[in-house]
Amino acid sequence: MVSVKIKEGHHIQISPGKHSELIRDTIEQMAPRFLPNSTLIYVGDTGEKWGYYDQELAGNLLFNVQQHGKMPDVILYVEDKKWLVLVESVTSHGPVDSKRYIELEELFGNMNELICL
Question: For the whole model, what pTM was predicted?
């Protein structure tokens, strides 16, 4: 299993593998460096599907995770910029293509700004 620190004093375990290691690195290294003060809302897991989900914050932002298969791997919220950041952790494919972007846009179309990493 891969241990992921989602906030101070709170870790989750997600399925082992390179994909999960990239998710962990995104949350623990990329987010603090490039998205300081961001809040983790969602972490997908290839095994359990629901690694972590802050339903209260998601509800406050007017979206609800309903279909895991369509969700990005990580969702972060940067409150001071009002950004919802969707992260696809891909270890074997290229960047987000137009088909995938449209899927994410359909899920989060009510948000003002859609940022896909």
Answer: 0.85
